[in-house]
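Regression test case RT-17, inverse folding.

Input:
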């Protein structure tokens, strides 16, 4: 069954769209700054050359839709709108629907970024198995990302702490690879593993005695550890200097104690997105 609901995409999903738009934007800007020389057939996204623009500010607005499970572990798919508002200053400050990011340190390909965002939480109305488990409240997140850019690759590690909501701590390690295919098309792929602490696992995958009595699901204790692995691929097409479109697809796989939870209907978590953005 497919259902429509108000926007409730995760911060990660939103940031993914904006980052790929940014990759296409960097490639377009670099091409414009080399006397119209054509880019190589396949290459990594080039650093943004700010002197090509009259302003150090960048603004992207747009929207689209995602098709994904109604909750993490569910098998009922839903279509959700994705509003896009992205504001960046130079190469160190960025605000988008996923949150605020600021570069604290950068040396060659190495960088350290501060991150501030949110954890959307979960409603027991998101799935039949969640009835009686109660809601997981909205929370604010703060964290750090450490990354290294090498040619067309980026290798990174992230740690985020949720204040409120699950009160959880999550870490991610991953790699991105992006390349130009012609003058206007950028393709990007990513592979990421997520590790979650006991607070996060308890909030989303454990079932205590009271919840078991209310839901009739068996009691279950999910321990900290590797929680999921995600693979994504996307393509961003620049129609011109301003208009960009992105299509993306990916799949996440719940593993370990998360996959064994009684609230999980399907370990495989697919998603598809389609978005259109305008850069000022």
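Golden output:
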């Amino acid at each position: 069954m497919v259902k429509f609901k108000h926007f409730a995409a995760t911060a990660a999903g939103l940031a993914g769209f904006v980052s790929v738009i940014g990759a296409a934007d960097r490639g377009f800007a670099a091409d414009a700054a080399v006397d119209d020389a054509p880019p190589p057939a396949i290459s990594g996204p080039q650093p943004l050359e700010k002197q090509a623009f009259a302003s150090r500010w960048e603004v992207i607005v747009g929207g689209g839709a995602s098709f994904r499970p109604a909750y993490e572990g569910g098998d009922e798919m839903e279509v959700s709108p994705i509003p896009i508002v992205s504001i960046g200053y130079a190469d160190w400050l960025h605000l988008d629907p996923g949150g605020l990011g600021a570069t604290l340190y950068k040396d060659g390909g190495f960088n350290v970024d501060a991150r501030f965002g949110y954890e959307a939480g979960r409603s027991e109305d998101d799935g039949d198995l969640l009835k009686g488990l109660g809601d997981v409240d909205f929370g604010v997140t703060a964290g750090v990302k450490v990354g290294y850019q090498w040619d067309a690759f980026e290798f990174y590690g992230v740690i985020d702490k949720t204040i409120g909501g699950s009160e959880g701590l999550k870490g991610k390690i991953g790699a991105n690879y992006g390349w130009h295919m012609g003058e206007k098309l950028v393709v990007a792929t990513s592979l990421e593993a997520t590790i979650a602490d006991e607070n996060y696992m308890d909030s989303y995958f454990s079932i205590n005695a009271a919840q078991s009595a209310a839901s009739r699901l068996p009691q279950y204790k999910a321990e900290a550890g590797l929680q999921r692995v995600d693979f994504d691929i996307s393509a961003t097409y620049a129609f011109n200097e301003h208009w960009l479109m992105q299509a993306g697809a990916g799949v996440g796989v719940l593993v370990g104690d998360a996959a064994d939870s009684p609230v999980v209907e399907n370990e495989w978590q697919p998603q598809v997105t389609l978005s259109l953005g305008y850069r000022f």
